Sequence to fold (227 residues):
Amino acid sequence: NAGVTQTPKFQVLKTGQSMTLQCAQDMNHNSMYWYRQDPGMGLRLIYYSASEGTTDKGEVPNGYNVSRLNKREFSLRLESAAPSQTSVYFCASMGWGRGSYEQYFGPGTRLTVT
Amino acid sequence: GESVGLHLPTLSVQEGDNSIINCAYSNSASDYFIWYKQESGKGPQFIIDIRSNMDKRQGQRVTVLLNKTVKHLSLQIAATQPGDSAVYFCAENDGGATNKLIFGTGTLLAVQP
Fold:
């Protein structure tokens, strides 16, 4: 049981390049989320997927797209990277555990756009 | 949502002392709150949660207090240890059906040996 996994762990892009961040969970959770975290700040929700086949915008969706490929996988795509998208990206899934709902986070992807 | 600041509030405590980390939330409809711990270079880790129909919940060495009147949440850590050094975030469920969490800015807890 690996929990939430993310690839890649690190990435450097040039302005205008595109890339997809991958996320997978093996806990059979319905809900999955993408956040970004900038230095010294909290997490901001980019997109989320309440269940397979649905996606919705969070607080900061501009410049991103997502795909809920199946129940396990939720990918985040940057079509044309900008320096403002330099950040650490966390994927999370939410499900019932230890008597309440918990959000489990992946280890993060550190993205630098030059 | 909550305001986001450029500087992380810091709480410095001596090893063995009790720590209290505070959080203000903004949404009266929020019905579920979680405290997370984030160590350097890692993703946030669940610590403890509380529902809006409770005002206190205890875990192992941690207690969360909820004051709905003033929309305030606190995390108390007993006998703070060096391993408790991390950034602590509170998060509120937005009260909707999609379990969307809104995170606070975070507090850096620095435990002095």
About this structure: Chain A is about 0% helix and 55% strand. Residues 49 and 55 of chain A are 4 Å apart (CA to CA).
